[in-house]
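A reminder before we start the practical. When you read a complex entry, don't treat the lines as separate problems. The point of joint prediction is that each chain is placed relative to the others, so the output describes one connected object in space. Small molecules and nucleic acid strands, if listed, are placed in the same frame. In the example below there are three entries. Take a minute to note the order of the lines before looking further.
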Amino acid sequence: MSRTYAGILAAETGAELTQSFRAPEFLLPTLALPVAFYMLFGVLMSRGGAAATYLLATYGIFAVMGPSLFGFGVGVAGERERGWLELKRAAPAPASTFIGAKLLATITFSALALMPVYAAAAFLGGVALPKAVWLTLFFVHLSAVFPFMLIGLSIGFTFGTNGAVAIANIVFLSFAVIGGLWFPATFFPGWMVAISNALPSFHLAEIALTIVDAPGDRVASFHAAVVAGMTLACAALAGWTWSRQR
Amino acid sequence: MRFDNGAKKPPGVMMSAMDTQADPRQLPAVIEAQGLSRHFGDTVALDKVDLHVPAGQICTLLGRNGAGKTTFIRCALGLLPPTAGSVTVLGEPAGSMAARLGTGVMLQDTDLSEALTAREQLALFSSYYSSPADVDAVIEEADIGSFADTRYKKLSGGQKRRVQFAVALIGKPRLLFLDEPTTGLDTDARRAVWDNVRRLAARGTSIILTTHYLEEADALADRIVVLAQGRVIADDTAAAIRTRTGGAIIRCRTSMTPEQAQALPGVRAADMHGRLLTLSCEHAPTTLRTLLSADPDVDDLEVTKPTLEQAFTALSAATTEDAS
Amino acid sequence: MLKKTTAISVAAVAAAFVSLMVVLPTPAPAPDLDGALVIDNVRYFDGEAMQGPAAVTVADGKIVSIGDPGAEAQGASRLDATGKTLLPGLFDAHVHTFATAQRDAVTFGVTALIDMFTAPALLAGARDARDSFAPSNSAALFSAGMLATVERGHGTQYGINVETLASPEDAPAWVAARIEEGSDFIKLVYMPYATYIPSLDLETATAVIEAAHDQGVQAVAHVSSLEGARELLDAGVDGFVHIFADKVADAAFIEAAVERDVFVIPTLAVIAMVNGKSTGPELIDDPDLGPRLTPAAATNLRQDFGSSSPYFDLDKALETVKLLHEAGVPILAGSDAPNPGTAHGASVHAEMALLVRAGLSTEEALAAATALPAEFFGAADRGRIAPGARADLVLVSGDPGADITATRRIDTVYRNGAAVGDDAEPTEGGTLTIAGVLGDFEVGTSAPEGLVWAETSDRMMGGDSLASVARIERGDGGALAVTTTVGSGFAFPWAGAFLGTTSQDAVGDLGDTRAVAFEVRGTPATYRLMLFVAGGMGAPPTAMFEVTEAWQRVEIAIADVAGFEPDRFGGMAFVTPMQTGEYTFELDNVTLIR
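Here is the predicted structure of the whole assembly.
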């Protein structure tokens, strides 16, 4: 058992996953909430059809937001408070394995949260898409891990556990509602649309909606560029809050 | 008499364990601090500390809360950048990967992951090292086998400290930082940790230990570095510090008043309970001669060497007066 | 151990992901909208309620979308149906399929038939035909095949060879044989209180129902009395194919029917006829339906028992239907065509009007002829207008939601998306080249494409002769067995086997055929080969041949058949002499020789 980067990353990821699997208060809402919401709004209330496809695109973003913001972003606040983070920094593990493990674990959990939503859409909502579209949609949804986890980390580095959870909840709900993940943003009044345009959730949803060819005019490359820019800004914010808390 | 940091160290600073060897300052250092200062705003947590810890030593940082022990350790681990001065660990810059690879750490106010078991925490940390200790061997060595598979959250405070100790050992460190390692442990568990520390030291592991238990310092340390208000106010063996802080403690029954007793030559402090007098004095024969002639009724006379506790109290009191 | 956790978790998630990707549904290939039809601005009945107006787009035999005008841009043809109503193709939930029933039904917008008793030979190919999305001028057929009855019981009088049941022990094997023949469900006759005809006893009827359920099909029953119906409810029957008209159902029966979750096909049209209140004349006189009737269908509609029977009181039947419907029992529209006073297709329109008279709303009456039979007889893609549904449709003028008789104002009938009568089916209505072997009966009773073997008798002309055909074993292969009883109900009686075109409009071309050859044996007599001329009227060109008890080969030169036109072949029939009596014969290797 010698020290390799991959070995450390694997062990760290295992630790993150084990901790999450042992936290039902995190596990259940993260995995069950998106599919439950989708069942209600995307399947039962919309009676399938175009709405089921539209909401699959947006609820996929919603499903990824939970693990990203709460599990591994806000979780940092607790680790910091308990001194766990400090012990890790004194130990000979590269900082990148710490972030990398959180990213891998978040992606794993996001995939777990996404798959029931896909299954509900396909087998209960009657959504049928070409394989390439399913696949692309999945990767677009998973890519939402990056900005949301960086935002979560920034919150975790800045606030204490209780404060971080409260802030993350506000971010979570406003990103979901104003970002148009629950209801199409086109129903919003003008001032809300302006806020939507400032949220990564909105632009990610627009990319996903382009993938499923939802009605409406969209330029995916524009939204992708916006998301890339926002992700870089989030990375800078996370880096700054990280250096500040030391 | 008091001791400044640095050059004016008396010959007694030599370690008893090292007596047969060359000057330890010529040995490779596991910690070399030079003019290390750390300020938090206007507060001076560390004030120009110079410290050379040679390999193979158990070095205890002794001091009251707030004396700068933990700040020193955090600087040495690279967790806090110094305001001024420098510190190297195992010849490498503090906090560098090379330094961290050779170091084991048990910090104060640091909890491990609550959801993982001791065995899992050890497995995680063992992945950081190229040739870590065997997890089962460490569990046995730290005597945590009975709760190695219990989630950390469910352990008692003492059990948690012992798991932390085990985690500090997993990398087979050349240098071990133990920040208040026995806080919260009962007497048996504390003695078990001490045995472990001694065994590690016997194997050549260098140990930096902070404590506010004088008993612990007395029991373990080759060398005690006393910190007060961020400065080193003493740096010697336990015996030497005891000796140097004053000749003796005199106890007796007497009819003198405390004021009369305080006025005796060489008396540093006098304490009166009814007729029972306790004197802390620099040189027992000088004081005794005057005492016996001044009060022919002296009874129950007893002369002892001061305890480390008493020595430490005296040292700290002197520093406080000096600073004010 | 943590690394193992990572490896297992990541592998499990990856495996789940890959499996999910494999099973996730993909859309059906985009329909070729070049051939699409947009029926625009049309009111439509979705199976439950009137909707629209909207644009209904049809392509590749299916409804592609509703309300999406996008298809128009892609070269679809557009029909402005303002003021018209689009209905799902109608069901007749109680018919007996003989001869041209499936073709006649489509003419009246009835695109699916639930057959309650026919010759099992007809079932071969029925499933493939109804599942096909090719344009067709023939109604889809769902059938019970042979019915469950006792020797000399109801059902045995029609000349079709019926395998009867004698005891409850017969039930499992009997049901298995029906399923093997292609029956979609089981129909049994239960009339123990009729004094004039024997019936299954309750024990045997129950055994048939249970055997059907055990073998995964439903069991429906012909009953004629309230008591009989009540007993079958307790036996677990799934539905009644008539409503009894002897008494009005009592509250206990209604309650039991609701509780047992049965459906009822009242067949009010036939009850009306028996009761002397036939709907036939009104259909003949209808300005839209009348002209669509074939002469035979019109004759059938005119037939009337002309008396009232104490067991058949239309008003009591209407009242029972009203009570059942109000209690929530599903009511399905079935006509029992081709009984006297009814006609395939046309009588469904009369039945819906009778259901409205019994208290159903117009939309409920429409559902009784569309979504409900589709639901209860497993025709998942029929009976509704919705994206993905089969495009069996009827476009009518006016609004049947306001007046149920508007269903009779048929504009266009679509079968698998193609307008019936549009020459949509290449093998129909065109010229069919016929040559070679027409029937060797090695496997079934199949004929070359575009042709079908069936029984024929003078019943279509009001006679009372009977015929049934079935494949039998002959050596290593098979032959066609024809069982007949020649009656005296028609001046020129006949009974036998018929080889006809599957399309009424198709014309066969025998090309340079010199003769018709076949092997035959049977009840010794002089039999007749009739060669029909497409569209011909009057007696068909006929040749005679002798039959003995031993197999012999017969060859008839077509030049010898006076009046026949080889390029206008409309079918051929091997029939009995005109003398009353029972004749059985076997046919094999029917071949055209050049």
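Discuss with your neighbour: Chain A touches chain C through 27 residues (CB under 8 Å). What might explain this?
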